[in-house]
TrEMBL record:
Keywords: 4Fe-4S, Iron, Iron-sulfur, Metal-binding, Nickel, Oxidoreductase. It comes from the Bacteria. [4Fe-4S] cluster 2 binds at C50, C53, C58, C72. [4Fe-4S] cluster 1 binds at C41, C49. This is Carbon monoxide dehydrogenase. It catalyses: CO + 2 oxidized [2Fe-2S]-[ferredoxin] + H2O = 2 reduced [2Fe-2S]-[ferredoxin] + CO2 + 2 H(+). The keyword Cell inner membrane does not apply. The lineage of its organism: Bacteria, Bacillati, Bacillota, Bacilli, Bacillales. It comes from Hydrogenibacillus schlegelii. Its EC number is 1.2.7.4. [Ni-4Fe-4S] cluster binds at H265, C299, C337, C450, C480, C530.
Length: 646
């Protein structure tokens, strides 16, 4: 742990070292740009501004007498509901676009149009096909894969009422599926719900804030379909993750190697980069390097970490810091969460910045269009640019913070169940349920979301994780939330004795020993990238089905302590729609609408069983999540900390 060396920007000492270097060299970073924006617009922060037509922008003063409505007559609650819905829609579009890309890659692979790809996990293909009602024929894998791909693509279109979106309907309990249908929040189709939200939030359409929020819930569940689909298809194409040992933080960069950072969210390109980097070792050595060192940034980093053990360099908020080391020869980008500012930093530091997707171009970067049909050929061209950049960098000083932590990652649901099966082969979930009943595991908390420049980087994650672990809450994490925790050692088994309560500690040691490990599982289980947040629902659904209850009865909660992206908003929405108390650690732009705020934090519980907890203080947030866990334990007739079974 390196907490003592933190700065105002971040708890991560490697980031702090690079912030200082950037200041010395006059390179503006995300923290400088944030300071330049202060004070930020108070109307916008509360959601009380609207520019959805050309009469505006309109704004409503939450404290003054006038105006109380926009030019068209939209009230404060209508404004904030429309704004929230549009954020959910954008998040759903991003995650489902990711999924669609994977589906088309699968189709090309099995048709022989993309020879560098294949079905790597037939067991996952079988489980997905059977869940969808598609007969599995091991003699004709290509046909099964094509039928799965077609079923996936059909989820984007408007569905008939009797044929709901499969990647929602088959991923939740029967009770939840019936509830969603009965209450009008089962999505009709992924693209349909995104389009519907954009239609109803146009000027002159839906002006009922509650009706708008109901549409937002449907769109949030469309996002869940995209996340779940993206996870399934990635596993089929690239393999279902199993535990791997690696490292994280800027110390994984190597001064004497060609450093290639893969950045973004989609593994279609990064999988090939990892393969080609090994094949081009001799070219790198001919240029004077020891080899090609691939590192990850953001969720693309999570993808290659959990399948190949590729180390994670850094994550969303601190992405510029990797370049400021002067050691990154190329950043290879797909899409999502990539700062346009990287072009300026890359120019200063001599890094090759390479965009590859039509949906994500940056002026100043090299654009090399990626086509799955020529994947390896294009990947070789990309790595070649990195080798050329190394030639220019060779012999020049770099500043790599010598800070990195051990990471055990790759806990897919399949991997978790397999680990539990070593305790009970016939009923793998029973050991987990037994420990929850006994109170050794008080509950389960999912950490997800991003970092936000408004918060000292990682502070909320680390503060909450420490408190919840001491209270014997099992933590799982995805996306850049997982990144925050891994950089501070929370995915190193050696941290268990320091951070976990006695009950949880005993459980992690028992599972580790049953699986032949020298020690315990890590304090926090890494489940993947941000789309892989859906794995948490798969696990919760399995537990709920095993117990004969619905998800909203389980002692399971979610938290995005430093949420930033619209994708985090859409994930939070589907978590609430599926019944989870869901914490957000930054102010959501809805508090200007009192009715909307009340619905999201209270009234929605009557509809779905889930609700939002907006709490900026991480200690108080942890307390509120513990309270939610205990309420659900009581509902199941289980004992609570310091209490008795009721």
């Amino acid at each position: 742990m390196f907490m003592a060396k933190s700065c105002k920007a971040s708890l991560d000492p490697a980031v702090c070292e690079m912030v200082e270097k950037a200041e010395q060299e006059g390179v503006r970073t995300v923290w400088d740009r944030y300071q330049a924006m202060l004070p930020q617009c108070g109307f916008g922060e509360t959601g009380l501004c609207c520019r959805h037509c050309l009469m505006g922008p309109c704004r409503i003063d939450p404290f003054g007498e006038e105006p109380k409505v926009g030019i068209c007559g939209a009230t404060a609650d209508v404004m904030v509901a429309r704004g929230l819905d549009r954020a959910i829609s954008a998040g759903a579009a991003a995650h489902s676009g990711h999924a669609r890309h994977l589906v088309h890659t699968l189709k090309k692979a099995v048709r022989g149009e993309a020879p560098d790809y294949a079905v790597k996990d037939q067991a996952k293909l079988r489980s997905v096909a059977e869940r969808l009602g598609i007969p599995f024929d091991e003699e004709n894998i290509a046909e099964v894969a094509l039928r799965v791909a077609e079923a996936a693509l059909s989820d984007f279109n408007e569905k008939e009422s009797e044929a709901p979106v499969a990647w929602v309907a088959t991923r939740v309990t029967e009770k939840r599926r019936n509830l969603l249908s009965e209450r009008g929040i089962m999505p009709k189709g992924i693209d349909y719900e995104i389009s519907d939200v954009m239609h109803r939030t146009h000027m002159g359409c839906d002006a009922d804030p509650v009706n708008l929020l109901q549409a937002g819930l449907r769109c949030g569940l469309a996002d869940f379909a995209g996340c779940s689909m993206g996870t399934d298809i990635s596993d089929i194409l690239f393999g279902t993750p199993q535990p791997v040992v690696s490292e994280a933080n800027l110390g994984v960069l190597k001064a004497d190697a060609v450093n290639v950072a893969v950045h973004g969210h989609n593994p279609v390109l990064s999988e090939i980069i990892v393969e080609v980097a090994q094949e081009m070792k001799s070219e790198a050595q001919a240029a004077g390097a020891k080899g090609v060192n691939v590192v990850g940034i953001c969720c693309t980093g999570n993808e290659v970490l959990m399948r190949h053990g590729i180390p994670s360099c850094t994550h969303s908020l601190s992405q510029e810091m990797a370049l400021i080391t002067g050691a990154v020869d190329a950043v290879v980008m797909d899409y999502q969460c990539i700062y346009p500012s990287l072009a300026t930093v890359a120019e200063c530091m001599g890094t090759k910045l390479i965009t590859t997707m039509e949906t994500m171009k940056i002026p100043g970067a090299i654009h090399i269009p990626f086509k799955e049909e020529r994947a390896k050929e294009i990947a070789r061209e990309i790595v070649g640019h990195a080798i050329e950049a190394f030639k220019r960098r060779k012999g020049m000083p770099v500043n790599i913070p010598q800070i990195k932590t051990k990471v055990v990652a790759g806990f897919s649901v399949e991997a978790i169940v397999n680990a539990l099966s070593k305790l009970n082969a016939e009923d793998p979930l029973k050991p987990l349920i037994d420990q929850i009943v006994a109170g050794n595991i008080r509950g389960v908390a999912l950490f997800c979301g991003c970092n936000n420049v408004k918060v000292q980087q990682d502070r909320n994650f680390i503060t909450m994780a420490r408190r919840l672990l001491k209270e014997n809450v099992l933590l799982i994490a995805s996306g850049c939330g997982a990144g925050a925790l891994m950089r501070h050692g929370f995915m190193d088994p050696a941290m268990v004795d320091e951070v976990c309560g006695e009950g949880l500690k005993a459980v992690l040691y028992a599972i580790g020993q049953a699986n032949g490990l020298d020690g315990p599982l890590p304090p926090v289980l890494h489940i993947g990238s941000c789309v892989d947040t859906s794995r948490a629902v798969v696990l919760a659904t399995a537990l709920a089905n095993r117990l004969g209850v619905d998800i909203d009865q389980l002692p399971v909660v979610a938290s995005a302590p430093e949420a930033m992206a619209e994708k985090a908003v859409s994930i939070g929405t589907w978590a609430v729609a599926l019944g989870l108390p869901t914490h957000v650690g930054v102010m959501m732009p809805v508090v200007g609408g009192p009715l909307v705020t009340q619905v999201l934090t209270d009234k929605v519980r009557d509809l779905t069983g889930g609700y939002f907890i907006v709490e900026l203080d991480p200690e108080l947030a942890a307390q509120k999540l513990l309270k939610a866990i205990d309420e659900r334990r009581v509902g199941l007739g289980l004992s609570v900390a310091g209490g008795v079974r009721r």
